[in-house]
Amino acid sequence: MSQRVFVTGMGVICGLGLDWKTVWSGLLSGRSAVKKWQFPGVQNFPVQYAAPVDDCSFANRFSGLPFLQKPMERRIRFGMAAAAEAIADAGLDDISSLGRVGVAVGSGVPDRDPDDFMLALTEQGPSWDALFSKRDQLNPGSGLTWTNDALGASIAEQYQLRGPVINLSTACAGAAHAIGLGFRMIRRGEVNAMVVGGADSVLNLPTMVGLHLLGAPSTSDQFGDRLCRPFDRDRSGFVAAEGAGILLLESEKSAHARNATIYAEVAGFGSSMDAYKITAPHPNGNGAVLAMQRALKDAGVLPDAVSCINAHGTSTPLNDLSETLAIKTVFAENRHYQHLRVTANKSMLGHLIAAAGAPECIATVLSVREGMIPPTINLENNDPACDLDYVPNLARRESVAVALSNSFGFGGLNASLVVRRYES
Amino acid sequence: MNHKKNDAIVVTGLGMVLPTGVGMEPLWSAFVSGKPAFSPYHNERIKTSLIPFFGHVPQSLLADARQIVPHKLRRFTPDYTACAVLAVKEALADANSSWSDVPEERRGLYTSQSDSTACDVFSFAHALDVSYQANGIDFQKFTQAALHARGVDPFLVIKNLSNNVLALISLVYRFRGDCGAFVHDESAALSALQRACFSLSHGYSDIALVVGAGTYNEALVLTEHYKLGHLSPCHQGKNSLRSFDLEQDGTLLGEGAVALVLERTESAKCRGAKSHVVLGGMVSTAFDYRAKTRSPLIAKKVLSLFNQEGMIPQNLGLICADGKGVAQNDADEIALIESLIGDAPVPVTSLRPIVGVLSSAGPLADIAMVSAMFEEKAIPPIATLRNPASEKIDFVREGVRQTSCETGLTLHTSFNGFFGAILLKHPGVLS
Q: I need a labelling partner for B321 at 20 to 30 A (CA). Which of A11, A130, B265, B366 fits?
């Protein structure tokens, strides 16, 4: 029998805060985590703004968790902290007591310490023997020694979870795919609960150089810390961020049995591929249309029941236009798109890349629970082609029964989640 | 058999690019004749005597594989992705051309891929070398080195993304349906298979492509495995991967890609496609570093799977074990097999001595080989096994065993504690 799936615990680590309540409060007040930023020891790096996690605050906040003190990549550390928060938020001392519990998480490119690369250097050029002979000097917290499945494995190990452990890498749609797969697994009865979400940190030299060479992050300094401006005429690229978002999804039966706090219901998931270009979305958002339509069908929800969309909204010229067109296609009947509220959390959080879908899904959950829609900040000059109601600059109090959360990734991968208000 | 005939998920297309070459025939031939496909280790950037042999995809094949990728996409394509694109071509051809009648939006794609460090290690080292100054890295010099001296590939991030295989295949073969890109190693292959089966069973897709691809031929990956003592010193040349042998001293790593086309039985019948093998179900365990052995947990799960299918393990036709040749992995597998079948004479073989550890392509290659065993009514031997580490287990050695089987179980371990099993059935069980 198909099970309903509820969100019963949440955790967020990002530049805006180290718990979901702080982050939610920041989003509603239009506070931005984007700030002036540079790599230590690197001069003239063209990307000058980012939304990093504050290391001192993080260390202070989580000094009591011994499992975070051992060497590990930044993204794994953020993910583990967010998982700890989500599980505590769910009121669980022992999550394995829920029975069959699995993990599904999305993450991106491993963090690579440039000093590790330098170990390969000799006067004659790079050499593996040189690297091998200095192998003990490899940074134990760097992705070079951690594999891309380390987050899921670490969560499962820490909490003794024996259910399926799924590690996804669908670029910027990674966390949304992970939430979607976790949702499906509970709904069909494979498991009772899933720890789902994502973690990422691209604020390392190799990855940022790679992203810069693709022209993805903005190098503008025109707007200072107001640089991330989804749907604005002057948007010029995304602003990189780091962090994690983890949700505990639980079957209706499990949540009711332990009288858990239910934040909202995850009601549908859709995924698709553009099959258009590696580095650009389809100009009409064809893949995004498919993902949204599939999610709505999966949830048994008609388009006119949706009142809010938490957009991917990267602040890149291509994404924001194609997402707008996709929304207009999906909600074309009776021009329902004119009645939608479309918000872009990245205007405040920056782009958490593979993790992005998780804090945005959490914000969507809170929107349907509390009837508050965070604003899209820095929306100062309307782009005539982006003509939806993007909730500019000020949060709005409005009842939201059903909302969508969109995530689209490099390679033309799309995911959309339907979140429904829980009526007890 | 519990399968409702039209609900079962079947494999209708098989394609592979492995150290043995392209397609099933050379792999099966090497497996049957017990000829390992390892070759002397080579990497244009790595000169070492510490890794004598490796399961390389032949250079000429890599060139062919790159030709299959449309020219405009080659700049985004590492070699193992090119192998995956070629493997998919083979699998789709094998699946009968009418697969293309399935609308693009109904074609699901599920990939499993390894981490990739190959693209950046030495290129970054070079670029950093020329840009490093007393007060740090001068990014302008770094960029110059990166862009003009070819120090850094401008598509580095794209090539390193673990959804690279998924992105390229969706573009080349027009797959626009449900999807997932999983990392990494054997566990990712099982995740991809499970999600593909789910997607087909629940009507999210009408055809599903499962692809596993990767290589261990990367400086830092090899460094790690060497450091962890996984690699055989190859004192016995190409015959050094000694699965389940008392004299084993480590494994040999390899590379390649395998693609499987999955469908619902009814869809396959409607298309007139041949079913190679039925996916009877699969189980996997989470990672558990604290456990001394993982076999009790996986044994419980495998037994549960058999119960669901109305089977008992002792009646299995064959087991295609992983047999990495790494002490802990093989010990775990032996404990599992013994606990599952006791003294029952279920033949056990392994493909690893022929092609090495293939990362996420490994489980898919094993499925392909079990389908061949069903078809050929023959179980190839564990090529290098001389002194079995278990007296109880009926390891196939010293020649092919002629026998007709209707069921098979593949077992999979990874270097990071994962354990999985896939139950396979002869397509005849559906008739």
A: B265
How many angstroms separate the Cα of B276 from the Cα of each of B95, B262, B380?
10, 10, 18
ipTM of the complex: 0.92
- Neighbour count for residue A274 (Cβ, 10 Å): 26
Say how many Å lie between the first and final Cα of chain A, rounded.
21
* Number of compact structural domains in chain A: 1
Residue A138 lies in a domain: no
Asked if A345 and A241 touch (Cβ cutoff 8 Å), the reply is no
Token code pair at residue A115: 């000093």
Angle at A283 between CA A278 and CA A286, to 5 degrees: 85
Q: What is the DSSP string of B387-430?
A: SBS-SSSEE--SSPEE---SEEEEEEE-TTS-EEEEEEE-GGGG
Least confident of A142-151, B132-141, B387-396: B132-141
How close B310 gets to chain A, by Cα (Å)? 19
CA B15/CA A76 separation, integer angstroms: 35
User: Residue A21 in 3-state DSSP?
Assistant: helix
Q: Is the pLDDT of residue A181 over 60?
A: yes
Helix (H) or strand (E) holding A87: helix A74-89
Q: Confirm whether pTM is higher than 0.90.
A: yes
B152 touching chain A per CB within 8 A: yes
Contacts of A292 in chain B (CB under 8 A): none
Measure the CA–CA gap between B369 and A259, rounded to whole angstroms.
Answer: 50
Assess if residue A86 is contained within a domain: yes
Residue B3 predicted with pLDDT over 50: no
Burial class (CB in 10 A: 0-12, 13-18, 19+), B377: exposed
Q: Among all residues of chain B, which has the CA nearest to that of A216?
A: B157
Q: Does B147 touch chain A (CB under 8 A)?
A: yes
Q: Is the pLDDT of residue A204 over 80?
A: yes
Find the closest chain B residue to A215 by CA distance. B154
**A189 SS3 class:** coil
Structure tokens belonging to residue A265: 């219901």
Q: Do B46 and A128 touch (CB under 8 A)?
A: yes
Q: Which of residues 234-273 of B touch A (CB under 8 A)?
A: none
Whether A336 is covered by a domain: the verdict is: yes
- The length of chain B in residues reads 431
C-alpha angle with apex B47: B43 to B51, nearest 5 degrees? Answer: 80
Distances (CA, A) of B28 to A403, B17, B350, B368: 52, 13, 12, 9
Tell me the CATH number for domain B9-115+162-426: 3.40.47.10
User: What 8-state DSSP symbol labels residue A224?
Assistant: G
Give the largest Cα separation in chain B, rounded.
74
Share of chain B above pLDDT 70, in %: 87
Q: Where are the domains of chain B?
A: 9-115+162-426, 121-156
d(CA B58, CA B64): 10
CATH number at residue A164: 3.40.47.10
Per the domain annotation, does A123 fall within a domain? no
Identity of residue B160: N
CA A110 from centroid of its chain's CA atoms: 16
Structure tokens at A106: 């999305």
**pLDDT given at position B1:** 38
- B32 token code pair: 């049957």
- Paired with B283 in beta bridges are B421
Question: Nearest-CA neighbor of B230 among B414, B366, B410?
Answer: B414
Residue labelled with tokens 């020694």: A145
Name residue A396's beta-bridge partners.
A373
Catalytic residue numbers of A read: 172, 312, 351
With bands split at pLDDT 50, 70 and 90, how would you rate the model's confidence at B103? very high
